[in-house]
Each structure stands twice: as C-alpha cells, then as structure tokens.
Amino acid sequence: MYGRNPRGRGAGCYAPLAALAILFSFAAPRASAQAWPPLPGDLPLARAPDSARIRAARWEDFLSAPRDAALAMKPRVVSDAGRSWELRVERNREHFYMLVLPRRGESYPVYAQGAWILKRRVSDGAPVSAKIFLRSDPGTFARLTPDGGRTRLDVVAYGGVLRLGVPLPMPFERAMSSPLPALVELSADLVEWDLFSPEPSLYRELASVVAGIRAALPGLAYADDGALDADGAWVRLADGAAQTVPVPGLNCSGFAKWVVDGLLGPARGSFSSVAEIKALMADMGRGPDARGASLTRAYETALEPYYGLDFTRALGSLAAGALGGRDATEGPSSMDVLASPPALLVDPGNPVNGLSGFEAYPDRFPDAGYRVDGLAPLLFMLASREPGHAYLAALSRSDPKEAGVRRWYHVAVLVPWFDSGGVFRVAVFESAAETSLGTLVARAGADFAHLVRLPVARGFEPPAPESPAAAVAARPDSD
User: DSSP character for 399?
Assistant: First the structure.
C-alpha cells in the first residue's frame, strides 16, 4: 500500500488508477444508491411541493385508516393547488407504508422533493415514523417519530445524521398534517435547514473547473514522483531533476499541484515551482524535531510520513495567497477544514423503507482529519455552506508494522458542487485520473482524509506541456 520509497514522496499514490476506477465504478458511498438517481429541478425548502392540506384532509380515511382497510387500498391521484399527488400503499413483512407523492414529470417518484411516507406496523397498524424528502435524492430526508405527546425529528443527508431527536412541541398526528415550513420554523434554532436550499448559480466556476480537468486528462499520464515545474518541465518531486522514465507524467501530489496551478495561473500569472512548494513545507517544521514521538522518530526520518499533509497545506497556502480566502499569514494550517462532522452515520437503504441502525462516526482528528467513509455528508455540508471551494485530501493511516506511525500516503482532489439542476455532485481526481467518491470509500473507507480548502475564482488554465510522448521524442537520448 505505502510503497517503499525511502523518502516517501507520494510513494503510496495509486497508479494506474484507471483499472480501479472501472473495478469500483458501481461502488457507491454510504447512503447513495445507484438504483435511485437524484432528480434535477428541486426548489428551496420554503417553496418545495407541500401536501399539508391533503395530509390533513386524508388523515382519517387514508393515513390513519384501519390496518385492513389501508392494506386493501388501491392507488389514487388527488389534486391540490394545481399539483397532482399520488396516494398509495406499499408493504413488506413487518411494516406497511402510506405514500403521498408529488408528480414529477410523468411519474410519482417515491423520493421526489416533498414526498411523505408514513411507516406503520403490520401487526397492529400503529404508526412508527414518517419520512419527508427534502430534496429529490434518497439520501436527504427528515424523519418524524412519535414520542408521547411530542414528536422527534431526525435530519439525514447522504448517510450523515445531521440532527437526531430534535423535540417538536406537538403530537405526531399534528406534525403529520403540518406544512413543512412550519416544522422548519419550529426547529430553526437546532437544524441547519439552509443546507437543503442551495443556489446552483453559485457553483458555475466549480463546474467549469471539473470540466477543464476532465478535458485535459487524456493528455496526462502517471509517473512515480512526477510533477510539472513552473516552466512546464517534467521533473521529479524528490530533487527537481528531469524525469527519466519512458513516459513522463504526474503522481498524486504532482497532479494536485497541476490542478492548483490551473487556479494560480490566471490569478497571479505564473505557476508554482517545486522549489517554492518545498520552501513552504520546510517552514512547517517537518521532521523528527517537530512532530512524532521518540519511539517513532526513526521511522519518521526514513519515511517522511507527513509529506502528503505538508504538500497539500503548501498548495493551500499558495491558493490562499493568490485567490483570497483565509489570511495566508495565519500559518500553514490556515486553509485546513475544521468543521465538525455528523456524529452518526446511517444507511437508509430503500427510500420507502425506514432507517437501519446507526453507527458512531469519529470527530475530526487534528492533522488526520475525517474518516473517509463519512466524506459524503461532510462534503455536502461544506458545499452548501461555502460555495466556490474545492478540496485537497491527504489520506493517511497508522501502520502497525512501523511503530504505529501515521503516514499521509496519498493525495486526491475533491470537488463538491450542485449542478445547474441542483443535483449534488462530487468529482474525485487522483493521480491524473478521475475516479469517484465510491471508489475512494471502497478502497480506503477506514482511513482518514485531511482536507485543505482551495478557493476557486474565475478561470482555470492549467499548464499545457508537451504530451508525454512528444517530451520523450524530444530528449537528446531518445531513439
């Protein structure tokens, strides 16, 4: 996994990644189901389709109908304020579900924004919970649970439980007949509802960066320890010397530099140099005198375990200085992501069925960051809160064979954004290839990712060197 490069510079970078991308192309991150693709065209929550009048009017003869009568019901379509809604019942062995679904195009998707699903027990017909879809994505919903004379509210986004057990001062029946904006208002002090009302126009530059990276990938190749210097020369990160491999290219760190250079070029008129990055890294106090413990210093000296962490922080510092954001004079960690992640993860499974069991998720660790299998909800939160940022992820794990030293062994570029239809996307680029968040989770879900912000301003113009093949042909010693 880590490789045995004694200097550790990107030794763990995956190469080539194309095979992995194909192998894991159908592997999805927690709470994302490829069988249930998100739908474009959602509205801010305040204007989302709302079935409150239908739910109130149909409480007796539909939502709370006796069990046998409810199970015998046929689907029906009703209208309210010019919008059509389908009422239907589904069941499994232990539960049955009363669905109130808004029309979306020519159908009634079970997870369309504004859909309500009441879950009841087959044994006695009692209500268990209700699911409300906040966006047309099976991974984003609120859940109401009866709690005596009150109701409890949970909020879930892409497998992350953003809020659990928020008390609402009303009985479950009243909550079931209330407009969603009323529930939002009651819980506004405890739930960050704005996360679910993104403005797609704020993400155009991020979408442009993703398109620019994708367009350039066919002209890039992987090379161990490879990078492009400020003048477009193919060099090695270890010493800045020219690459001598048959086909020059980029490793994971070199590729991250290439992406950042695409942002720096339009902003400051020049690309970063390997020497410039090394100078910034030297100021971060790398080495056994600054970090680690006495028992691990021999490994730290041999392996340079902090290389990926320091490299991404150096790139973040360059981006901050050229593109704005946090004050680059605040130190090497000024662009670190410090947000608190959800404390629980959950796999919601089929959108009709309720939630499965919760799993504790660790808080952010200094320098190590976030466990990879919880990146989806975290990136959703970051994208909603701070439009206009991409992220560098330095992946790490502790190796018991090397005195438990944590090594930042790989670098990836993560770009979360909402497309023009409002659908949440995450583009993942590693070692001059595009993979996916599912690939990353499948391969390194138990590892940790330290995130560094990259402000994205107008314009993405990455270095455009000679193709690897042309660079080889131009060498004096080439055949």
Answer: E
Residue 155 φ then ψ, to 5°: -130, 125
Tokens standing for residue 74: 């046929």
**How many whole angstroms separate alpha carbon 374 and alpha carbon 328?**
28
CA proximity to 341, closest of 366, 374, 309: 374
Nearest C-alpha neighbor of 321 from the set 284, 255, 366, 270: 270
Whether the upstream peptide bond of residue 6 has omega within 30° of 0, thus cis, is: no
Gap between the Cα atoms of 287 and 305, Å rounded: 9
Residues in a beta bridge with 433 = 430
Strands 116-121 and 127-133: antiparallel
From first CA to last CA, the distance across the chain in angstroms is: 34
CB-based contacts of 385, cutoff 8 Å, min separation 6: 195, 339
Q: Could you tell me which residues are beta bridge partners of residue 277?
A: none
DSSP three-state, residue 343: coil
| pTM of the model as a whole | 0.90
* Residues written for the chain: 479
- What single-letter amino acid sits at 405? V
Q: How far apart are CA 197 and CA 182, in angstroms?
A: 16
Q: How far apart are CA 35 and CA 382, in angstroms?
A: 25
User: How far is the C-alpha of 76 from the C-alpha of 469, rounded, in Å?
Assistant: 64
Work out the burial of residue 109: count CB atoms within 10 Å of its CB; fewer than 13 is exposed, 13-18 middle, 19 or more buried. Answer: buried
- The count of other CB atoms within 10 Å of the CB of residue 331 is 14
Helix or strand (DSSP H, E) at 69: helix 67-71
- pLDDT for res 31: 40
**Cross-strand partners of 26:** none
Half-sphere exposure of residue 398: CA atoms within 13 angstroms, side-chain side? 9
Task: For residues 355 and 126, give the distance between their C-alpha atoms in angstroms, rounded to a whole number.
Answer: 17
How would residue 405 be classed by pLDDT, with cut points 50, 70 and 90? confident
Beta strands in 229-386 (DSSP E): 234-236, 344-346, 358-360, 370-371
Kindly report the number of other CB atoms within 10 A of residue 21's CB atom.
Answer: 17
Half-sphere exposure of 387 (CA within 13 A, CB side): 18
Q: Sort strands 76-80 and 83-91 into parallel, antiparallel or unpaired.
A: antiparallel
Task: Please tell me which of 95-99, 282-286, 290-294 the model is most confident about, judged by mean pLDDT.
Answer: 95-99
pLDDT at residue number 298: 52
